[in-house]
Structures are given as C-alpha cells and as structure tokens.
Specification:
mainly beta; four-stranded mixed beta sheet; 1 helix
C-alpha cells in the first residue's frame, strides 16, 4: 500500500472520530456508447405499447438500474427493469427483465441498490383483487432472486398504497406504505425483507400509526444501523401536519407512539421528502400553506426524535405565489440542498421555474433568500429531481417546455455556493421529437448523473430512454476510484482511496475546504504508484467538518474530479468504528475502532446473506484506539458486512452502540 508521509508533524491526543458521510465515486472508463447529441440518447426500453414512471438507482459501478411499469402485454401493467453500464450499454435482456408479470396490474415501482450491483424493487400489486405490496430482488446479471413475480410484503385486508423503500445495508430492504386495513382511516405500516427474500417483522407489516384520522405518503431513509426514519403527512390535528418515527433493526418503534411532530403549523403541510443528516438523524422538507400560498419548509430531527431547528421548521422559500414539487439531497456536510418548482414569476403565473436552496446543519439557509434560480427559461419547468454532485453541490434535472411545442429534459449543476456551473437555464439532455417527461436521476459516480425519463419520440406510445449528463457537458476521468474514504483519528484526517482502472493517469491532487468556505485549497500532489493510497492531513483546529476533493491528473496535465468526502470530527466521548483498510482487499484487512471507556465489544463479519462468517472481537476492552486484522483467505469474493457493537456499563445509563459497515473481497 502506498502510504504518503504526513505534510505536517502532529502530537497525539486521546480523541478519535470517524467519517459520517462519504460518496463513493466511480468515474467513467469510457463514454463511447452515451451519445453527445441530446436528440439521440440511449433507448432503455422500446417494447410495444407503453412504459411509464421510471425509477433509477446506481449499480455501484458508474451505471444504473432502471425500473418501470410496462404495458407490453396489452392486458395489464407489469414491472420490468434494465441495467445500463457506465458506457450506456444495456447489460440485461433487450427491453428489460420481467420483475413481475402477475395477473392484473402492478404499479409504482421503487428500488434501492442491494450492495452487490443488483437491486431490491417494491411495487403496488392488484393480483389479489385489492392493492397489496410485493417485492423482488434482481442480481447484477439480471436474474431475479426470490419467488417468481415477487414476495408479498403485505397482503392485508383492503388496500395498501404508495410503497417507499430504504436499503437495510445487508442486501435487503425496509419498505413502508400507507394502508387501508383499518378503514375508515389510513395508517402507516413498514416491513423488513432480508437478502434472501424472507420478511423479518410482523406478518403484513408493523403499524407505525394507529387510531383515528388519516396518515399518508410515508418517506423513509436509512438510519445507518439497520433501521429507518420515516416521515409522513398526518391529519390528527384537523389540518395536515408532518410527523416522523424511527424504527430499529428489530422493527420496534423508538420514539413517541404514533410519531413525533415535525411541524403542526397553521394551514396544511404536505408531501414530505427526507434525507439523512450525516449523523443519526434526518432532514425533512415539505410543501407548506401556513402563509396561504404554498411555500417550502424544512426541519432536522435528531436520532432521538428531537427537533434540531426552529419550531415547526425553517423557511426554505416563502417567495410570492406557490412553490411545490420539492426534492432533497444531502450536501455532504450535515445539511441539505432542496429544489422545487416555483411560480414566483408574477401574479397569476401559470408557468413554473426551478429554484434551489442549501441549508446547513444548523438550519441556516446558505444561498440567496428564497432560493437560487436554476432555470427561469420561458414557459414551464417542472418535476425537478436532484442528486449530490460529490462536491457539496447538486445536479438537478426537470421537464422543460421552453420550446413551446413539447416537453424536453434539461439539467443544471449548481455548486456549493449556489452558482450554476453549466449553460444559463440548463443544458438540454433530451430534445428528441415529441414529449419527454418525468425524469429520474442518479449519480454516475463522478460529478455528473444518469437520467431516465418517459419518452414519446416514437409516437403515441411512451418508451424509456436514458442519458449520462457528462457525455453532453464533458467531464471524464482517467481513473476509476473504487473507494474514496476519509476519517478523523487523533487530530488528523486520514484520506484513503483505491483504484482498479487506469487510463493515462499521471498523478492525484488533493484539495480541502473548511465547512462554509466556497473555495478549495491545494493540499498535496500524489504521484501514481500502485492501487492503494493514503494521506494524513493535520486537522484544522476546532473545525467540525472538512471537505476533501480528489482530482485525477492525466498525462496531459488535465485535472478531473475523481472523488469527494466530507470528514466530521467526533469527540473522545464517542465510540468509533473505522472503515477497514485496505478496501477492497484480497486476503487480509485491518479494522480499527476506538473506545472512550472500558466496555464490552463485539465485532462480527457476515456475508451478503446475513450468515456470520467470523467473530473478531467478543469481550471486555479498555479505552483507547484498537485494531484487529481479518484474514479472509478461506472466503470467496463478494460483499461482506461487519457489525460493531458496544454494550456500556449499566450504571452509565448510556445506550448500546451498533454500527454496520461494508467491505469487498476481490480475489
């Protein structure tokens, strides 16, 4: 392993921490298949009849898995999926693999990456003459893994609607929905399905809410410990409000029964969307009518359910007229970036524009009051979707009627300071004949994105097309970075990365930026030397966050971003578990952890199916920084997880600490 000598000497002190947020970046090896012409694009599915409502997730290798509802049978809607690689080549059966072709209709597919290049997909299903929730797992080769046509998540009486999904971190998923089994009211339910397709909690789901009044539109996000935080809209107070609940890995609710109030402001609050806050809580944003017109508000909740920002939320935008259709993504530093469709253009405006706002971890908006314009082109821009760009900013896509004839797909990148980076009002992603609509977006592993949408270029029926933004705006890298990771340890930021593909790579350049700064500062140049790299950087005083950016330098001296990580300082009172190094690895790797006091520690390794394959630690350990070597010589290649558990002294009153991380064996 290439170990870079620290650029400054440091003293040692007894405090340790670890990374709370990281983005794995896998830049393109080639863009040969992605066209650079927005009138062309890549056909994902052009089967007969229509294909609608694409959803998309990263495949973990710079490509994407796309799922949609499909009417090719001519009798009812089914669910199909396709994987496209980093070059835009379809990897599975032409026009997609059937996920479910059960009798009657299947609608509203949602999906998450399974951690192994495949996905877990859930949908709403009418095969039993009422709407139920089903799920299926598909592997990286396009082979379904569970019962044909899917595993029932809930087949309770009456109907279950609007499934939403979060990964469980071990190849399975946690799925939530709103449920009519308790008519006349709707309630929120949730279920966990593991990597083998076995439901883990109460049959037909755990009730998150009970009693009178209605609850709708659950939005889940992983809590990082095998559970989820779910937000929903709730009528218990007469008007619609936003409530939330945390469910642990065993399916037990963690906060107040029926959820904690996120906002109970006057008027109504609708359509919550949610993202992790980089710690153990979440940031939630919603559409809000407390001021008569629709505005955008947000709130941060802690891991214990407490509101971190102003009571009833912080105003993201209260511009005149209405703001709606909000979407959210983490900014990588404990805050979030929110985008929405905006009618502020004038009294009686009927055409919306796209705006965005960044809000920091303290709930302070960072950009222009009421949001920075992303696109204010003529006619309408609507249905925004967003992903993090890996550098504290975001890539936003939307459907666009500026032509005055048809809707097209456009996109814009906005940096951490709220400055748009591409052409004014966005770049055209698809301007093919007829209409393109309902875009879905996922990171391409670099600073760009893969976008999928409904496409009518063939005529009356709708197909699914996709495009990598970088093929249009440029931005490739001479190297594939498979792990870019940072952690705080004893007064230093330890920045590590691995590479497995090199094309004209000469060196790396590392940059840093303190939280709240807009400009990057050069840290070091690291010459090409092997496949494993590590750099130690002195921590800047009392800073809580430091961003690091890794650029790859090609043989012509041109730089392109290959990775981004936000490192957070954690104080000595916290239990720490670090990412194993090296990662990926062939035979052995080292896992480090830190304890603030004498405690009982267990450290166990599991395969992707949840079977325990090794116990590395199980006993009482003293305070301090520890390391243990894991020998995987007898294990096959694949994704594994390791679970770090700390049981504190009962007299301390502290809660047990559990953290799960992934590692990859390559032989």
């Amino acid at each position: 392993m290439r170990r870079i000598v620290p650029r400054l000497a440091f003293g040692h002190r007894r405090s340790a921490g670890f990374l709370l947020f990281s983005v794995l970046l896998v830049p393109h090896e080639s863009l040969a298949q992605w066209p650079g012409d927005p009138a062309v694009n890549v056909a994902v599915c052009t089967a007969t009849q229509e294909q609608r409502k694409p959803a998309i997730v990263s495949d973990g290798s710079g490509g994407a898995i796309i799922v949609w509802r499909d009417y090719r049978s001519g009798a009812d809607y089914d669910i199909y999926a396709q994987r496209v690689d980093e070059s835009g080549v379809a990897l599975w059966t032409a026009n997609g693999v059937a996920i479910s072709t059960a009798a009657f209709d299947q609608y509203d597919p949602v999906l998450v990456n399974d951690g192994s290049g495949g996905a877990v997909i859930a949908w709403r299903d009418f095969r039993n003459a009422s709407w139920d929730i089903y799920a299926q797992r598909i592997n990286s080769s396009g082979v379904v893994q569970w019962t044909a046509n899917g595993v029932p998540i809930s087949i309770a009486a009456d109907s279950q609607w609007k499934p939403a999904i979060a990964a469980d971190g071990a190849g399975g998923a946690i799925i939530t929905w709103y449920d009519y089994r308790s008519l006349p009211n709707t309630q929120i339910y949730v279920q966990h399905i593991d990597a083998l397709g076995a439901v883990q909690w109460t049959a037909d789901g755990v009730a998150i809410t009970t009693g009178a009044n209605d609850r709708y539109d659950p939005a889940p996000v992983s809590d990082g410990l095998g559970g989820v935080i779910i937000a929903w809209r709730d009528s218990r107070n007469g008007n619609m409000d936003i409530y939330a609940q945390r469910i642990d890995a065993s399916g037990a609710v963690q906060w107040t029964a029926n959820g904690v109030a996120v906002t109970t402001a006057a008027g109504g609050q609708y359509d919550p969307v949610i993202v992790r806050d980089g710690s153990d809580g979440a940031i939630i944003t919603w559409r809000d009518t407390r001021n008569t017109d629709e505005d955008i508000f947000a709130q941060r909740v802690s891991g214990s359910g407490g509101a971190k920002w102003a009571t009833d939320g912080v105003a993201v935008s209260t511009a005149q007229n209405s703001q709606s259709g909000q979407a959210i993504v983490s900014d990588g530093s404990g805050g979030a970036i929110v985008t929405w469709a905006d009618l502020r253009a004038g009294s009686g405006a009927v055409y919306s524009d796209i705006y965005a706002q960044r809000i920091d971890s303290s709930g302070v908006v960072q950009w222009t009051a009421d949001g920075a314009p992303v696109s204010t082109a003529g006619n309408e821009q609507d249905v925004p979707a967003i992903i993090c760009d890996g550098s504290g900013g975001a890539v936003i896509t939307w459907e666009d009627y500026r032509s005055g004839t048809n809707y097209d797909i456009y996109a814009q990148r906005i940096d951490a300071s709220g400055v748009v980076q591409w052409a004014a009002n966005g770049v055209a992603i698809s301007t093919a004949a007829n209409t393109q609509t309902n875009p879905a977006i996922v990171s391409d592993g670099s600073t760009g994105a893969v976008i999928a949408w409904e496409d009518y270029r063939s005529g009356a029926n709708c197909d699914i097309y996709a495009q990598d933004v970088c093929a249009i705006v440029g931005g490739t890298s001479p190297v594939t970075v498979v792990d870019f990771h940072g952690e705080y340890l004893e007064g230093r930021a330890v920045i590590s990365w691995s590479i497995h593909y090199v094309d004209k790579l000469a060196a790396f350049r590392l940059y840093s930026r303190r939280y709240g700064e807009s400009s990057w500062k050069f840290v070091a140049k690291i010459e090409k030397d092997g496949t494993e790299y590590q750099y130690y950087d002195r921590w800047p005083g009392s800073e809580s966050f430091v961003d690091y950016r890794l650029d790859a330098v090609d043989l012509n001296g041109q730089e392109s971003t290959a990775g981004f990580v936000a490192v957070r300082k954690i104080e000595a009172s916290d239990n720490i578990i670090c990412q194993n190094r090296p990662n990926p690895f062939g035979r052995s790797t080292v896992i480090s952890y830190a304890l603030p006091a004498r405690q009982h520690v267990t450290l166990r390794v599991f395969d992707i199916l949840g079977h325990e394959v090794a116990t590395l630690v199980d006993g009482i350990e003293s305070a301090g920084v520890k390391s243990v070597q894991f020998d995987a010589g007898n294990l096959p290649s694949g994704i594994y997880t390791y679970r770090f558990s700390v049981a504190p002294d009962a007299a301390s009153g502290d809660k047990p600490f559990v953290s799960v991380k992934k590692m990859l064996i390559l032989k």
